[in-house]
Amino acid sequence: MTHRLLIIDDEPDIWEMTQLILENLAGWQVLTAGSGPEGIQKAAQEQPEAILLDVMMPDMDGPTTLARLRALPETQGIPVIFLSAKVKNAQDSSFAHLGANGIISKPFNAATLASEIAALVGWDP
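Structure tokens predicted for Response regulator (125 residues):
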């Protein structure tokens, strides 16, 4: 099944690589946004099935972006997975408290990325 995913990350290298992996290995449709405000706008317009959201971004960080996504009726139900280079157990629970479906650490394994995302949002493999 083809899934639609939005990546919100301020590092073009990360979202370009992630997009290539998910489109070529999993056959998913991947949209991208380079900032929190752009991601919120795209999520509201495009209605992706899930969002990969970078934790550390300038201007509007991941937790703030997630809070704004959850505040909008058109985006509040979209599953969100954080991407973070700094993952600790304490952070995992704080991210869950914010309403994230999970967290994937950077760098991630290209071969297992799609299955990790699918497991976190409840998609059939």
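The two ends are 9 Å apart (CA to CA).
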